[in-house]
Amino acid sequence: LTTLAASSHTFSGLRPVNLKTDLAPLADLMELAFADSMDTGGRAAIREMRALSKLGGGLNLLSGVNDLVAGIGLGYVWAENGRLVGNVSIYPASLPSHLPKTWIIANVAVHPDWRGRGIARQLMQTSMDAVRARSGDIILQVEERNDTAYHLYDSLGFTAEGTFNHWRRPSSARKPPAPDHPLAYITRRSRGEWQAEYALAQRVRPAEQGGIGWLRPLDLYYFKKPLLAAISDALNLRSVERLIIRGEDERDILASLWIESAFGASTTTLTMMVHPDYAPLYSEALLNNVTRRFEGSVLVTDHPIDDTVSNYLLSKYQFIVTRTLTHMRWRASHD
Ligand SMILES: CC(C)(COP(=O)(O)OP(=O)(O)OC[C@H]1O[C@@H](n2cnc3c(N)ncnc32)[C@H](O)[C@@H]1OP(=O)(O)O)[C@@H](O)C(=O)NCCC(=O)NCCS
Q1: Tell me, what DSSP letter sits at residue 310?
Q2: Is 198 buried (19+), middle (13-18) or exposed (0-12) by CB count in 10 A?
Q3: Minimum-distance ligand 1 atom for the alpha carbon of 34
Q4: Atom 19, ligand 1: residue with shortest CA distance
Q5: Segment 33-56, tens digit of pLDDT
Q6: First CA to last CA across the chain, in angstroms?
């Protein structure tokens, strides 16, 4: 490898990201590498990178407050004669503080003309070494059909933890008709029912299959939120409504739907968990309720791909799959 002291115009090899100079060329690289798969979030990130690149020296200050910049700043790039042709970003995952430190690897990209030469592998290995020095697991998401990337992560010791469809129901979707007769008795979960709801989640969202979803490991925290976290949500005008359907004994929870919205945000995020013995009836009851009440707003949900009953019902209620992502984890303890 050429040393870092070499002029940045001729440098070839791997080096840490330099926020002052790299953001604009990285935006170009990411746009090219992800041309086929970029979603709205990705395009927004590219725009933000281009805007931030104009700040130059001010960026290091910003890296403390802006998540996008912080992650890019911790990552590595590959240069060929000064031109950026590869990138890996490392982000600290924002998880409840009692959980083990976890890092996210993202923006893994190599310019099409330089692929197949081991550049991504070297960028990944260096990034994993950097995380090893700080300790903690690494998680990432890969498109289900991206065999090249999957093979790369698999060969580096990452294991798949479940695959989720990202469903989106556009605001223009029609309001579904009310059922002829009530499908189930839907009510709000009370604070004291966290154990019953956690038991349902253990069954339908086991930890080894990715837990509740991306950045939502199966953990009691999400069922029995500490008062301080609940207050912080209220101050930030975030709300979560928990609809449930109880079992006959009134103790078990057989179905649950979390409806999360942030004040002023245009999308509402759903998390649906239904005991398999009570699907499709209870799944339909919940979906009918929420799509009727939230007519005119965008609804999104990540749902495990192997739940065929829910897949059918989500389609019936005019949700559309926009991405299918496999969640992978590299465990620090395996070393
Ligand atoms: C995925 C990507 C980063 C790989 O970059 P790369 O520098 O070509 O990868 P490497 O040369 O380090 O090869 C890594 C592995 O990928 C596989 N691979 C590379 N090129 C391949 C090709 N053309 N066809 C099939 N497999 C290929 C190889 O099997 C290689 O493993 P090996 O070392 O055991 O042979 C690159 O293809 C890319 O930018 N793709 C578009 C963006 C993307 O999908 N990023 C991943 C998001 S999760």
Answers
A1: H
A2: middle
A3: 42
A4: 116
A5: 998 888 877 888 899 889 888 887
A6: 27
